[in-house]
Design goal:
Length: about 750
């Protein structure tokens, strides 16, 4: 049996999974043979549907992707048969039997791809499904067609999706894109197109917290929208006089490419942000106001409809955890009750898929580390049955997930000892230092060396995922009372809510999920001891950092506001020169070339070409403790795009550079003649003079300075021309093969210094 990479190799757990899979696959074979022999009934088809559903979830949570895929295909096929939408033919029964028989042999294959025989069996099932026949053949009637003493079994009784109408039917493996502007592998999934909305499920605009008219909320500028009450008609329908040519007359399914769908969502979000930026420059009463309002509302509607297709209930990743707890309970001989709440909440699949693996690790940690044996619990006055609770709820545009147990709590002394033994903790064992250790890769306080525990990557992985989602992570633990971990993540990765702040002469984005309160500096009580500042906040004293100083940048102005934040290291605060606005932004990931400090997690597109870098403040807190205040090099950035100047300048500044930025050759030459710079970064495609011409001009006054040319459009011959003109290095803006730009520039400076003097 080939166990999934990165997951337990515990033989007892493996055997538990094999035994359960064997039992369920045997029942699936019996059901398929009942179909072949014409003796299938509603009760049997319902049981088969449940078996496929359980295998899908169990295979997923145990890491057997191919078996989970097969389980979901069995589930969806039996669902259509049970609902009377597909005939239970002999050919279909044979295909279902073949897939069911190949589940156990697939355990010996690759966990991701399974066995060749299982792949062939699934292909044969697809072939059988491609030939649709009318339902109601001899030997089977759907529950809707028959009346008997057997209570009809419906999908809603055991569906992983909440509600009677199943809006989305998906192939199991949904590739997760890193961001809307990162094109994933061509994953596809099916979307059921229905004529009427499902009343049991909130629409995307309700889920996202937007108004029905698509009006922008909590923005600092006016966005024109219709002043009349919204009417439920299609966009561009002339008030309902014309309709879409693509109107389906009945429910049908189409295949959607996941990458293209998320590109559409990202484009719609960017369009909305750009329209809002443009509308802020309009005078009230402008003749363009109405047209912009229509475009804005259309962009909002497009994005929300696309998100509706890309969303899935949290139960998709939460329900399978009950099987995992069952396995672990038997393995560890601990009695455990798992309670799940909020599984009906729909979120972006990118969000839920990223959370699935860390949540599984949290459950393993809770069982292995947190939950005591029945003897220990009884001796401590607790019930011998332990409790693990997963509760999710929505708050504005975020979903909050709490995972708690009533176990022994975190042994902070063990965490400290582990840190000192491993050489990771040399100074005082402060709370932030211990929490940082706990969320670091390889941290495990387990007394026993078991295959179940793994290598202590669970909390580190969880923190990394939450940072990628621009969310917040909190931990509470009490000795003898248990541990609670709270995740706050956006409903969608594409559009984020952020506080835009100014510090060190630049604008930065702080995810709103990390901020609990914003204080005016004049109202704050700040005390300083041994060079460290603390904010007196109620009954607590929170570490207080200057945002500029934490990044190692010079202050450009005195702070006027304090942000109170939460994170895995505990609550803390940062001071900023100004809080500019609180608004929604279109989030984008940073390309590898912009690799810098780990507290820079993305770029916030503000519309109109403006950009702000997004910060992970907990990582910044760790960075501040290790800031060595090394001498800073200076760099001049030359690019006609405001957004590019802001992103490059911000990344390089955070990476320890003093940065000036100009828009073209004339300004660049003026800066170089009047200032001292160690390197120049120049764009290729600029209106005044291209990057090659600019580099030639720079070489006439600064022949020794390293020059890097960036381009997204230059051809090979352009690169040759640039190198001939004195450019040291040509880089593609979207390149993923290079090291970070700051490191590249430092290496060029060192190379120049090592060159022999002429």
């Amino acid at each position: 049996m080939r166990w999934p990479l990165g997951w337990t190799t515990d033989p007892e757990l493996a055997e538990l999974f094999r035994v359960e899979l064997t039992e369920r696959s045997e029942r699936l074979v019996d059901g398929a043979r009942a179909m072949i022999e014409g003796r299938l009934d509603a009760e049997t088809s319902g049981v088969m549907l449940r078996e496929g559903h359980t295998i899908k979830g169990t295979g997923r949570v145990m890491g057997f992707v191919a078996i989970s895929v097969a389980g979901e295909r069995l589930e969806s096929t039996w669902r259509t048969v049970q609902a009377g939408e597909r005939a239970g033919t002999e050919v279909l029964g044979q295909a279902l039997e073949t897939v069911s028989l190949q589940l156990i042999p697939a355990l010996e294959g690759d966990p991701e791809t399974g066995s060749t025989a299982l792949t062939d069996a699934l292909a044969a099932l697809e072939s059988a499904l491609s030939s649709r026949e009318p339902s109601g053949i001899v030997g089977y009637e759907s529950p809707a067609q028959q009346s008997s003493s057997v209570a009809p079994t419906t999908f809603e009784d055991y569906s992983i999706d909440s509600g009677p109408a199943y809006r989305q039917e998906t192939t199991p493996m949904f590739d997760v894109a890193d961001s809307a502007d990162t094109k994933p592998e061509p994953a596809e999934y099916r979307v059921a197109m229905e004529r009427e909305p499902d009343p049991s499920r909130p629409l995307a605009h309700t889920m996202m917290g937007s108004s029905g008219t698509g009006r922008a909320r909590d923005l600092d500028h006016h966005v024109p929208t219709s002043t009349k009450a919204p009417i439920e008609v299609e966009a561009h329908s002339l008030g309902g006089l014309v309709g879409a040519l693509e109107k389906w007359e009945a429910t049908d399914s189409v295949t959607v490419n996941a990458g293209q769908l998320y590109s559409l969502i990202g484009a719609a979000a960017s369009l909305r942000i750009d329209v809002e930026a443009l509308s802020s420059d309009l005078e009230v009463g402008s003749p363009h106001e109405g047209a912009l309002g229509i475009v804005h509302d259309a962009a909002v509607a497009l994005r929300e409809e696309a998100l509706e297709l890309a969303s899935a209930p949290l139960s998709r990743i939460l329900r399978p955890l009950s099987q995992l707890v069952g396995y672990l309970s038997r393995k560890t001989e601990k009695e455990i009750t798992l309670t799940i709440e909020g599984g009906e909440i729909h979120v972006d699949r990118q969000v839920s898929e990223l959370l699935a693996e860390p949540l599984r690790h949290l459950i393993v940690n809770a069982v292995e580390h947190g939950i005591e044996s029945a003897y220990e619990r009884t001796a401590a006055g607790k019930s011998h049955i332990a409790q693990i609770r997963i509760a999710a709820h929505m708050a504005d545009d975020v979903v909050v997930i709490e995972i708690s147990d009533d176990g022994r709590g975190i042994d902070w002394q063990a965490v400290e000892q582990m840190g000192r033994d491993g050489g990771h903790l040399a100074g005082d064992a402060t709370e932030p230092a211990l929490r940082s250790l706990l969320f670091s890769q390889g941290t495990s306080t387990s007394d026993s060396d078991t295959d179940l525990v793994g290598e202590g990557s669970g909390l580190a992985q969880l923190r990394a995922v939450v940072e990628r989602l621009y969310g917040a992570l909190e931990l509470e633990s009490a000795d003898g009372a248990g541990t609670k971990i709270r995740l706050t993540v956006p409903m969608s990765r594409v559009l984020q809510r952020a506080h835009l702040v100014r510090s060190a002469g630049r604008q930065w984005g702080v995810p709103a999920s990390e901020v609990t309160e914003i204080l005016d500096m004049s109202d704050a009580v700040v005390e300083t001891d041994n060079g460290r500042s603390e904010l007196v906040h109620g009954s607590h004293r929170l570490p207080l950092l200057s945002l500029a100083e934490a990044m190692g940048l010079p202050k450009s102005a005195e702070p006027t506001a304090i942000l109170v934040l939460v994170g895995p290291l505990g609550p803390f605060a940062i001071s900023v020169a100004e809080v500019v606005a609180t608004r929604e932004v279109a989030a984008r990931s940073l390309k590898p070339m912009l690799d810098g400090p780990d507290y820079l997690t993305g770029a916030a597109m503000l519309g109109g070409g403006a950009v702000a870098l997004i910060l992970d403040t907990s990582s910044l807190l760790e960075h501040a403790d290790n800031n060595d205040n090394a001498p800073m090099n200076s760099v001049l950035v030359v690019d006609d795009s405001l957004g590019v100047r802001e992103v490059l300048g911000g990344v390089l500044a955070a990476d320890g550079w003093l940065v000036d930025a100009v828009s073209g050759m004339t300004e660049a030459l003026e800066q170089l003649e009047g200032g001292s710079y160690d390197a120049v970064v120049v764009d290729y495609d600029m209106p005044e003079a291209d990057g090659v011409e600019t580099a030639q001009a720079i070489r006439t006054i600064r022949p020794e300075i390293p020059i890097v040319l960036l381009s997204g459009v230059a051809r090979a011959e352009d690169h040759e021309r640039a190198l001939a003109a004195g450019v040291d290095l040509c880089l593609q803006k979207g390149s993923g093969e290079r090291e970070g730009l700051g490191t590249t520039l430092r290496n060029l400076i060192k190379s120049r210094l090592m060159e022999p003097t002429q």
